[in-house]
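TICKET #2291
ISSUE: user wants both folds in one file
ATTACHMENT 1:
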Amino acid sequence: MTRLRIQVTAVLILLSAITCAAAGAAQIEILAPAQDDTIHDNSGNLAVAVKVEPPIDPKDGTSIRILLDGKPAARDSSSVSIALTGVERGQHSLQALLVNRKGQTLSVSETVDFTMWQASVNSPARQRKP
């Protein structure tokens, strides 16, 4: 996806969030990782924590969708703690969406940018010793 397409998608999601906030809808926020965090994990594991106000009721079909670089990164969940796996090294953007059972977006978090740091396979520290 081109950078322009990602930016256009982000603007559309932000406009949706402003509309939802004005209508008094639930609000969603990413608590972890924090903005500009560097995550050190050679396996690419990332723990995402979100806050929803008011809290969601799984019985009504509302769930949380996590977007990594604009694409769904995990199954929709009613949990406010979501584990991502296989996140590649480099800079990424993360967003959380609150969606209804039809998949319609009810609320959108602000974008959180972070860096996944992984040791190089060529690092002397990772070289096997004879």
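ATTACHMENT 2:
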Amino acid sequence: MEKTYESCNFLCLTDESVPGYPLYIRKRVHGLTASVFSSLVSISHPKRTTKEETSETNSPSPEHETLNLQPGELVEVKSVNEIAETLDERQKYKGLYFMPEMEKFCGKKFRVFKRAEIITLESTGEVRKLRVPTVFLEGVYCTGELHDGCDRSCFHFWREVWLKRIPESNKNAL
């Protein structure tokens, strides 16, 4: 019997109705068979790239991208323009999308909840170690507004290059 995926995320083309946002958005699907899932993957990822072609190597490399942020530290999310300078043509920095719903957090201060170092891909079950410093921020999660009302409340993944450490003397600012 063919494997069935109960639920997974995949990327699909948008209608480009929102200028400046990625052409791909996440969609949630339910009850896919393995063969249907495979065909969606080939549609949603039309160009398979080699390691040399990935956004990891094409992304700009701003200075001081590694802050080594730790849980409890206070940070400010950089402005949309500052973050945009780090993104490649696919709206990614080293393989991670800066999603449109993350813009509302720009310019605001938050505490680091935890470092994101190991993740499991829902679509395949593959466990990956993140090589680029990435954190979760306290109280910063996806509301599902741009994902058909999804109620999962997933944390947004924040690359350290998108954040500014708040100096010790300004920690009462939050």
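RESOLUTION: both attachments delivered.
EXTRA DETAIL ON ATTACHMENT 2: Helices lie at 34-44, 55-58, 80-84.
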